[in-house]
Write a structure and sequence with these properties.
Maltoporin, Chain A; mainly beta; 650 residues; disordered N terminus
Length: 650
């Protein structure tokens, strides 16, 4: 039996011009995923965007919360990628877990998603490993309404109804996912509001046994409700925007060091205000104010466990941007305060960080540009520096080169992992029998990165890109843990040793080809090879959870204006998770520490009706119907069909 999952591993690359008409050279590391690509690929949840990014590895246990690793350590290392919404940085982290699903944004509100893959300064943040920047749809003149409904079924699986009073066989409903948004666009004022409701069933037998052992709910289900309001206005030549968002999730939060899922209610709140005011034709002043609160609240469980945790952050940033001749300069400063609220007695319940950042972009010629970015951050005691320099060069009309070199030095507070708070008295792990030891004091983490790319526009509609990258990481604090399986409680346990001062190197190469054969046909091929090096066994063991080989071929075709076809063939090599080696032997392979290589094929068809006001979409996931897991204790996903309907009234 396999657990249902909708829209897992769907991937598409947006066709995007890299040859700027204005002569400015955009970075080759940028990927733009448009709303049309999201629709064509059958995306229905925000976390599915992670599977659309080429070069990023993903993993999941339940299919609801996803982990991502952009060109570096495994997804269970510190997340190095950032999330932004309309220029506003968003803090989604809970003990190092960054779940996009908690962001209260419906897919109908999204205009595009921009991904940056190399270090730089963006909106006051130094983007280390990558950036997911979500851009909302600008409301059209007048009122508009949009509604979306999605549901799915995995074939050959008994489904959640077998575990309900209906006890109906071979029906596995995924969802439903329901969302709606209403918007108003005026001459100088606009506003948009959205809401969503989701249900996620996990019917994999092993996961159900784990969840049922600790849950007091008769039929454990992941549920989420969210709502948001966005409003913008123009005053005195300036543009300002306010965002209010809140989501509530009832989930099974997996904390690796604890060894099992725990039922939680996880509210998330984000309030942001940002804007820009021109001081002259060449100089603009920008500001950002943000507040976020992440909680892990108790949901009734048989062990009466409670994370008892809330982390709130507020930050203010102000910056000036000036254009002069062939250059652009940004200089800004920020102040942020992070506070923890818990019943445990902490030696320090928060910290304050001050930052100074800047970016200098110089384009002496139409075919050449250089960018220097820096970011200084202090916690009052220590000062850390991050810097990156990029060179872009166009050779003739067909070739484009880019190279980026960066140095990243981090404060301990930037880790966002549970260990920072454990050292300050947060006692959830020790109070619940987890034996934690430290092999030394937490070290100073720093990274050196190098990225190089070459793109060749072979002919009209055909382009080739070859990339290489290198990461030298040191001062890492990695978890050394070997799980034992407890058959009585269906859980994993084992002492955790946090080992500081780990170091290693990661190198990789990518090749991508984009072919637009006809106006309505696009083919994309992407291949990546990645390898870890060095003498540090723990570093290499952690890295083996990331596939070495990754191949993807996608196709989009619109034979008629109202009909769209989409397909994706993907291969990823096997991974090894040494933490589960003993549990593998104890469960006779039920929890295998080796996740086998996988070849999957997804096919979709889309139909527009009513002058493109109504859309119907049908996606067949994993047509080969092979059981495809992404994690040793996660569910394996087979052939699934997903049906979506959408209505827009502008």
């Amino acid at each position: 039996m396999r657990t249902a999952l909708a829209c897992l591993s769907i991937t598409a690359l947006a066709a995007q011009p890299i040859w700027s008409q204005e002569g400015e050279l955009p970075p080759l590391s940028r990927q733009v995923i448009t709303a049309e690509v999201l629709r064509s690929a059958g995306v229905r949840r925000l976390s599915d965007v992670l599977a659309l990014i080429h070069g990023w590895d993903i993993s999941t246990i339940t299919g609801f919360t996803w982990e991502a690793s952009p060109r570096g350590l495994s997804s269970f290392g510190r997340p190095t990628w950032a999330v932004m919404l309309d220029g506003q940085p968003v803090d989604l982290d809970v003990f190092g877990v960054r779940s996009l699903e908690r962001l209260p944004v419906t897919l109908g509100q999204i205009d595009s998603v921009v991904i940056l893959g190399t270090p730089t300064v963006q909106n006051g943040e130094f983007v280390e490993g990558g950036l997911i920047h979500i851009h909302s749809r600008q409301p059209q003149q007048g009122f508009s309404v949009q509604a979306h409904l999605a549901t799915a079924n995995e074939t050959g699986d008994p489904g959640p109804y077998q575990f309900t009073d209906l006890a109906t066989s071979n029906i596995d409903r995924i969802g439903s996912d329901v969302s709606a948004q209403v918007a108003y666009g005026g001459t100088r004022v606009y506003a948009a509001a959205g809401a969503l409701w989701r249900e996620h069933f996990v019917t994999d037998p092993a996961i159900r046994r784990r969840n049922s052992d600790i849950s007091v709910d008769e039929h454990p289900i992941i549920k989420q409700a969210a709502a948001s309001i966005r409003a913008g206005w123009e005053v005195g030549g300036g543009r300002h925007e306010l965002y209010l968002g809140h989501s509530w999730t009832r989930d099974f939060f997996f904390l690796k060091s604890f060894g099992r899922e725990l039922p939680v209610e996880s509210p998330f709140t984000h309030i942001g205000l940002n804007g820009a005011q021109p001081l002259s034709s060449a100089t603009h002043l920008r500001y950002r104010l943000a507040y976020s609160a992440n909680e892990l609240d108790k949901h009734a469980n048989s062990l009466d466990l409670d994370f008892d945790w809330q982390l709130s952050r507020w930050k203010v940033e102000i910056e000036a941007m000036h254009r002069h001749g062939t250059g652009r300069f940004i200089l800004g400063a920020g102040l942020a305060r992070t506070s923890a609220k818990t019943g445990y007695t902490l030696s320090d319940d928060g910290f304050t960080q001050a930052s100074l950042y800047g970016q200098l972009q110089h384009q002496p010629r139409r075919k050449m540009s250089q960018t220097l970015a820096f970011h200084l951050m202090s916690n009052g005691t220590d000062l850390r520096v991050k810097a990156a320099v990029a060179q872009r060069l166009r050779i003739g009309e067909r070739h484009l080169l880019e190279a980026v070199l960066s140095y990243l030095d981090r404060l301990p507070e930037e880790a966002d992992r549970i260990w920072y708070w454990v050292q300050r008295g947060y006692g959830f792990l020790s109070d619940n029998g987890v034996d934690v030891t430290y092999a030394g004091s937490l070290g100073r983490a720093h990274t050196v990165t190098f990225d190089a790319r070459w793109m060749n526009r072979i002919s009209t509609g055909l382009s080739l890109r070859i990339s290489t990258y290198f990461r030298s990481l040191s001062g890492l604090s990695l978890e050394d843990q070997r799980f034992q399986f407890n058959a009585l409680s269906q859980s994993f346990s084992g002492p955790v040793q946090l080992v500081p001062s780990r170091r290693g190197k990661v190198a990789g190469a990518e090749i991508a080809a984009n072919w637009e054969a006809l106006r309505a046909l696009e083919l994309v091929l992407f291949y990546r090879y990645q390898e870890a090096a060095g003498d540090d066994r723990l570093f290499k063991r952690t890295w083996r959870t990331v596939p070495r080989h990754w191949l993807r071929i996608t196709a989009r075709h619109e034979p008629w204006e109202s009909v769209g076809l989409w397909g994706m063939l993907q291969y990823r090599s096997s991974t090894r998770w040494a933490d589960y080696r003993e549990a593998d032997a104890q469960t006779d392979g039920t929890y295998s520490h080796v996740v086998d290589d996988a070849l999957t094929l997804d096919l979709a068809v889309q139909k527009w009706l009513w002058d493109r006001r109504m859309r119907l979409h049908l996606l067949f996931r994993n047509v080969f119907d092979d059981a495809v897991p992404y994690h040793p204790i996660g569910a394996a996903y087979g052939l699934t069909f997903i049906v979506q309907g959408e209505v827009s009234l502008d």
